[in-house]
Records
---
Amino acid sequence: LKLVCLLLLNPKHFRSCKACGLMGNITGRAVKSADLPVELNLQDAPGHSHVALDVGNATSINKRWGLRLVCVSDTHGNHRTMDVPEGDVLIHAGDFTLFGRREHALDFDAWLAELPHKTKIVILGNHENNADWNKQVAELLPHATVLRQSDFQLSEDGPRFFGTDFFWPIKKGTNNPYFEQIPEGTDVILAHGPALGCADGGQGCEALLAAVRRVRPALVVSGHIHRARGASELLHEGGQAGKTVLLNAANCGSGKEERRIVHSPIVVDI
């Protein structure tokens, strides 16, 4: 599979993308400590950004599935104004509505039905968490696999996803018992709010970061902090070394563009 404008987690690999015909071996900055996340520099191509995971270095994975994940978040009812690249799995990391408007949720599901992706995985953001229909969200989104403190495995040998409910960051040094429910062996975590220090604009959750260090997934997909859209890499120490890539896939901008799509989806190949 040839990929585009990519961020490679292993500089031995080189990929190109049919979408723009470019090649790259872009990497993050050198890492000296496994304690701190490192910012990864995404390069945008027309229509998307790209990440290729070196899954052989992830503790939960020892093979490549050959899957393309298309990651979006924080569309706030503007989903139809966004171009979505093709892929195997569409992931929406929450805030698909504006202020939990029911009509936004209904149109979001109709839009999902029109997309070619075989699997669509959705979690709730704070805008949906406050909606009076949030407990009936699975009924409103029949064309999505909605994860709420639950997991989903794509196939018998496929990647394992776990999606959390929305939680505001809690006091530092305090555990979130709901994040402790994320099982080891999870390959992809979906959590609307980002982990502390990981494309979070300084507003991430320490408890989620602790859960990522415990579970050591290959990928975490978040959003919420629009201005922090980007990617980070977290190296793990101990008997099973590995690394996790954490995305902030927010599509709406910040400031005057807070309710307008300004960022493209992030495509991840695993």
---
Amino acid sequence: MLAKTLSQQEAQVRDVQLGQLSECKVLTEDEVVELASKCKELLQQETNVTHVRAPVVVVGDTHGQFHDLMEIFKIAGNAPDTNYLFLGDYVDRGYYSVETVCMVIALKVRYPSRIVMIRGNHESRQITQVYGFYEECLRKYGSAKVWQVLTDLFDYLPLAAVIENQLFCPHAGLSPSMDTLDQINQIHRFEEVPHEGPMCDLLWSDPDDRMGWGISPRGAGYTYGQDISEHFNHVNGLKFIIRAHQLVSEGFLWQHEGAVVTVFSAPNYCYRCGNVASILIFDDKLERDVRYFTETVENSGMMAPRTAARYFW
């Protein structure tokens, strides 16, 4: 994690912004532009696989469900007293993508050594033009500038994290193009997510009950079997893989006989799926605690969008 001390004046500015965001109020366009610029300076110093120290709380997809994000902070604690690793997919689907992603970015800028955020498949220009974030920015700001600034920032997000050199944390999964963390660190990541290749695979692939590599029904990435997960863990000296990306009804799911676990942190996804959500808490000895939670009162009153694109994860 990066160590950076903010000036008293800048810390006060960030605290005001965090206070405004905590009330689910958007920042001004100029504030988002400046905040994104500061965050970009931090992210470009991080490797593709960024290193994370324990203790830490791992958060899966939040998808614009702002009130549920705030519930996570109530459950696990606020930064800087709690360290967080966010596994991507901050935007789309939910009605508060702007507030959700800006909250995480503002926390990253305020507490650089306490917050790690990586890229999900929805941190993409193409995907956000289909699943809600682009339209939300237009509605809340009257132009596409905030969307452009934030999607430019997404290009700088790391592709994965590794906790204490023992737990590999991509947004989604593995790639047949690479076997090691060193190979992942060689990827040129500062661009839009490609339609294929290892960067795409890390953000799109899913574990499967079948062995080996398979064609993904998502139309991007691959499916990977237990043999693939176990081989990757063995080669890299890892205990297991922590990933998000996939709706699981109980919010938490072990697969591949303990080689992979899915953490999904958006309860009642899309305001209609009825799923429980979870976060994964590690202490300084990597002892783990799964915390489950359901949607907040604020979200329980939300109506699902009348229309939704067929892609549903």
